[in-house]
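User: For this week's homework, look closely at the record that follows, marking any run of repeated tokens, and judge whether sequence predicts the tokens.
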Amino acid sequence: MRTYKTWEAIKELTENPKLKFKYDTGAEYGVIANINGDIKLIECAGQKISKCLCLYSGFLNVRWEPVREPVDFMTAIKANQKGKVIRYVLEDIDTQRHFPPYYNGNIYSTAILNGKWYIEE
């Protein structure tokens, strides 16, 4: 029988609420199911359970985006020269600025030294 990774089982449960999935590691086992749009662990070690793990439908339906990690200034500038939009954030003065692709203007030294630089996708 085919096995599924956790994320695959959750995806299948959201698309077909009548399914159930079980896991058995040898040391522990359980069953997850879609109960009224929520993904719940309904059985653990042979015991029916009401609350242990629940991924609510609101959580399952949110839209996700990748977390952008800051890059160093030179990496940002090189990406900008290749046509990417870049931005910096100065947290201590709560400001940010976006630079269009191929920006050829001034950048403050404070932003170069203290800014957190990001490449927009």
In short: The two ends are 40 Å apart (CA to CA).
